[in-house]
Amino acid sequence: MITMKYDGHSGVREHIMKMSDMASQLKGMDMAISEGFLVHFIMTSLPSQFGHFKINYNTQKDKWKMSELIAMCVQEEERLKVEKPDMAHLTIGPNKKSFKKVDIPPNSWWIDTDASIHITNSLQGYLTSKRLSKGERTITLGNGTEVEIEAIGTLCLILDTGFIMDLVDTVYVPVFTRNLISVPRLDSYGYELKFGNNGVSLFYNSCLVGSGTLHALDVFKIYKAEVENQLNRRIKSVRSDRGGEYYGRFTESGQHLSAFALFLREHGIIANYTMPGTPEQNGVAERRNRTLIDMVRSMMSNSTLPEFLWGEALKTAVHILNRVPSKVVPKTPYELWVGRKPTLNYLHVWGCPAEAKIFNPQIKKLDSKTISCNFIGYPERSKVGTELKKLTSNEVSTPMMEYGVTQEVSCNENENVPTTECDYDVGLESDPTSYDQAINSENSTLWLYAMEEELKSMKDNEVWDFVKLPKGIKTIGCKWIFKTKHDSKGNVERYNARLVAKGYTQKEGIDYKETFSPVSKKDSLRIVMALVAHFDLELHQMDVKTAFLNGDLHEEVYMDQPEGF
């Protein structure tokens, strides 16, 4: 009972009745609490918005009874609702490329996931505040500049739901153009923000206390126009949950259409809705969201980049998944959508250090033509180039003229992160990843010769027989692996092509029992060299081409014919 606090959500009457019920239970356990102590506990549990109410109570000679306390608290709560400060507008900044410009009130509050403190440009809503000494009057912004603050205190916000939220240690900075709510500060006080379905929800003690929604209809209109104009296709149906922005609301007369649902009906698009509380009916989308979050978590863990770049990691994960086939659908989403297989030779490890070539007409002959960056994603509207962002202004670990995956970025305290992103030409020559790439490359003749040599080796070792596929048997696919061999000086020595089966489509214990890949160990090689030196023997070294083809396969495996032959 001592630790109970009024959350401003259920109503002060219900809060007092709950505490009275607990006092009655204690009385039944021979632990009775006097009415005066109960009133004291209730007054202590009230939030800071009732500050003046508490002062008036403490200055009175006559103390209230429970019935009087309930009536006065309800009256005070109604007064606070009438005289409350302007409603808080929780705002999510839309992407300029995806949303229309809207008029946002100047007193709106912006949720900032990277801000360490709450900041306001107005004294309106402050419950308590104090002036600061000279040494405490400045804060440092993300770009390194310092601004003066004039006061700090607890600010009261009343959300659209009626929930009263206290922003403790909110600083007053008159020169700021926006009011910022710090997500880390909210988290430390028990609040939880959940982003999803193009909206954000605010929870306190597992209860929904506020929400804000992005304009899903505007994004869908842009998507619909692009599909019809670029691909000459039409959207016939849309499946979603029964969220208010998609479904609207259900009344006694039936569905009251939202703007999104009305737009679908006007354009003849069928709207399919899942049942309330059954996310499994939209299982494909829910599972894909889980896959994306797992990929982002892995990418952020593997890199040295700051967490605020998680959005870039998410866009990169989507870019990759659109070019990866699944077990159910053998073709990639990109191929199904565009009609051709995607090119994968430009993919790189997210977050790896890189050197980017910049365009500068005034650059001198001996000036550096590159800058040290970190790879953060792929541009959507550029045919060439990779989106990079410079992390530090003066120091980066050993520069590389290509992408690396092991080097870390040396960051100092004065880290400068520009707000703009640019496209740079960072193309690299790499081995082909498919048969089509090898045939269409500059070295197509050499790659074709390497493939013919591989097939000749398999024919000489009697690796396979051409047979008619029996009924009920499913084949496994195969693919070409291309590798350019270089000598000690970096010159091209030969072109290798290996035909391998897609063994990942088989299951251990059903299709095969064990795998075997003989590789000589360095210790064994050292022993042989020592014996040769000790007995003064002659050592002859030779290379057995396609040595793995000399093994015996006891299982029957039906494989597709190699592409191009």
Automatic annotation (TrEMBL):
**Which Pfam families would you find in this protein's record?**
Pol_BBD (PF22936), Retrotran_gag_2 (PF14223), RVT_2 (PF07727)
Q: Which residues form the Integrase catalytic domain?
A: 236-341
Which GO terms fall under biological process for this protein? DNA integration; proteolysis
- UniProt GO MF annotations: aspartic-type endopeptidase activity; metal ion binding; nucleic acid binding
Enumerate the InterPro entries for this protein. Answer: DNA/RNA_pol_sf, Integrase_cat-core, PolX-like_BBD, Retrotran_Ty1/copia-like, RNaseH-like_sf, RNaseH_sf, RVT_2
**Could you name the domain of life of the organism this protein comes from?**
Eukaryota
**Record's keyword terms, sorted:** Aspartyl protease, Hydrolase, Metal-binding, Protease
- What PANTHER family would the database entry show? TRANSPOSASE, PUTATIVE-RELATED (PTHR42648), TRANSPOSON-ENCODED PROTEIN WITH RIBONUCLEASE H-LIKE AND RETROVIRUS ZINC FINGER-LIKE DOMAINS (PTHR42648:SF28)
Q: What is this protein called?
A: Retrovirus-related Pol polyprotein from transposon TNT 1-94
Species for this entry:
Vitis vinifera
State the gene name recorded for this protein: POLX_2580
